[in-house]
Amino acid sequence: MRTRVKICCIRSVEEAELAVRHGADALGLVGAMPSGPGVIDDHTIAVIAAVVPPPVAAFLLTSETTADAIAAHRTRTGVSTVQIVSPIPPAEAARLVKLMPETRRVQVIHVEGADAIELISEYASLVHAFLLDSGRPRAATPVLGGTGRTHDWRVSAAFVAASPLPVFLAGGLTPENVGHAIRTVRPFGVDVCSGVRADNGKLDSVKLWAFMRAVAAADSRVALPTR
Is the pLDDT of residue 86 over 70? Predict the structure, then answer.
């Protein structure tokens, strides 16, 4: 199965169009965060989301932690998918199902240790997919994405093997390491921000092309599971 690619930290319509031309399956639009790159205001998110062509998905990265606030954030921006970057209480996730039954919901799990796998059972019935990242949500200033750091892919591989839902892999991915990441973790999709950007922070077409090429090459080398 082809590995899906989500290009995150999209900041403008022009960046969105560039990512789509290179074959992105999804775009990440970053709302207000306590830290990290790529934050844009809700109006800009709504403008970009409105021009994203199907079947490309527009993901809203929201740091809100209550169902009401997440649903309101989604309404303001008009996205098709919400990516919940904080570990919210399962009761709030359950309420979100009722508030946004038609909106796709992705729960971020920050892989700080093997105990990340234990969170599968808490959220699997309440969301549509997981995304594994390298944040530190319990830090004095929470880090909820855009770290440019990898985490222990052995834990990620075990998470993917145990999850009944699709799993995206994020955290420090680049054109140089994404192939190894795919072969090691076998995720449904990969998510990249800083790894395809120039030193000035702009989306780089050369790095983007190299990333997409590396993903395609890795897919051709991943053996199909035996029955």
Answer: yes
**Residue 66 belongs to a domain:** yes
In DSSP terms, which residues pair with 30 in a beta bridge? Answer: 39, 61
Q: How far apart are CA 163 and CA 22, in angstroms?
A: 29
Closest by Cα among 34, 32, 38, 46 to 6: 38
In a domain, 226, yes or no: no
pLDDT for 161 = 98
Range of the structural domain that residue 211 is part of: 4-221
Q: What is the pLDDT of residue 225?
A: 47
pLDDT digits (tens, 9 = 90+) for 112-122: 899 999 999 99
Residue 221's identity, in one-letter code, is R
**Count of structural domains, the chain:** 1
Q: Residue 106: which residues within 8 A CB-CB, separation 6 or more?
A: 59, 81, 82, 83, 84, 127, 128, 129, 130, 131, 168
List the CATH number of the domain containing 193.
3.20.20.70
Going by C-alpha positions, the residue among 33, 58, 38, 56 that lies closest to residue 48 is 58
Q: What is the three-state SS of 156-178?
A: HHHHHHHCCCCEEECCCCCCCCH
Q: Is 112 helix (H, G, I), strand (E, B) or coil?
A: coil
DSSP per-residue codes, 18-47 = HHHHTT-SEEEEE---SS-S-B--HHHHHH
Residue 224 has pLDDT above 50, yes or no: no
**Residue 167 is assigned to a structural domain of this protein:** yes
